[in-house]
Design a protein that fits this description.
The chain is built from 2 helices and 12 strands. By secondary structure, it is mainly beta. A 12-stranded antiparallel β-barrel has the order 1-2-3-4-5-6-7-8-9-10-11-12. It is elongated, with a radius of gyration of 23 Å. The N and C termini lie far apart (69 Å).
Length: 287
């Protein structure tokens, strides 16, 4: 190896190190500028607690669904898996949700607003895992059905650099209360009212306020006739920082249950700091 060749090789290596270190530093600077709130992250970065009809399901369920989230600055597609495992004779249970795969495309304006690096991911990536434990406090047709939940979100989601998932833990606790407004004698049809209230907390990148706290609340109606059920609810977060942390979800679901199979169509309209309209089609197998 000649002296001239070694010198050129050294110059090339030095140039590449400076280039990639500059890119890494640019990514880090962008991540420091991210705003950790629902308005400035992907549609699944801050999962919203679910109204559970005040009841623990008595069946094991495994569901796979495809989701599409849309607003003018972002189009996102997801594959989501869910498993619900009741135990103690239907008095308690555990649910696991995994955002298996995500694909998105930003406009330049949204990329810049969120301080993201890229308009779309150059690599395949998955999202967070959510584990929820729930317990039936009261089950009474005369008074109400009451269910308490505790959830934790992992920090396993990808593409923090593009404000897709937060790479930070979150947890929430809530209480669900539901009651029949009407039920026919045969039990094949019913109309229920339900409500939920709780506390939601997530970690941020703010060195002064290391976490953001929020109230979460919801109210809704659900109806059932034979194998078909329809539910609608308004669910909201009210964060402490007021930096895009006050989303409102209007959620709707239509289910068709036949034997041990459930097909579900969901539509969510976002308001205030929830920018997306979301569509979901899922299939669940019960055991």
């Amino acid at each position: 190896m000649t002296k001239l060749f070694r010198r050129r090789l050294l110059i090339l290596i030095t140039f590449l190190m400076v280039l990639f270190s500059g890119q890494a530093q640019g990514w880090r600077e962008n991540m420091d500028l991210l705003i950790y709130s629902p308005r400035y992250f992907g549609p699944l970065a801050f999962p919203m607690p679910q109204l559970r009809d005040g009841l623990v399901s008595e069946r094991y369920e495994v569901e796979l669904s495809g989701e599409y989230h849309h607003y003018s600055g972002d189009k996102t597609m997801d594959i989501v898996g869910r498993a619900t495992l009741p135990f103690v004779r239907g008095k308690a249970g555990v649910e696991v949700i995994w955002y298996i795969k995500e694909k998105y495309k930003y406009t330049d304006a949204t990329r810049d607003e969120r301080n993201a690096v890229a308009n779309e991911s150059p690599i395949a990536y998955s999202g967070d895992v959510i584990v929820t434990a729930f317990f039936q406090v009261l089950r009474s047709e005369r008074y109400a059905d009451i269910l308490v939940n505790g959830s934790i979100k992992t920090a396993s989601g990808g593409r923090l650099v593009d404000a897709r998932f937060t790479d930070a833990a979150a947890y929430w606790f809530d209480i669900n209360i539901a009651r029949n407004l009407w039920k026919n004698k045969s039990g094949t049809a019913a109309l229920r009212i339900q409500a939920m209230a709780g506390f939601y907390c997530w970690m941020t990148n703010d060195m002064v306020h290391r976490q953001n706290d929020a109230l979460v609340y919801a109210f809704g109606l659900s109806g059932r006739y034979r194998n078909v059920s329809l539910a609608t609810d308004i669910t909201a977060l009210h964060g402490y920082e007021n930096n895009g942390d006050r989303p409102i979800h209007w959620r709707n679901s239509l289910k068709y249950d036949v034997k041990n199979n459930i097909v579900t169509f969901r539509y969510t309209h976002g308001m205030k700091d929830r920018l997306y309209d979301s569509f979901s089609l899922g299939y669940a197998r019960c055991f």
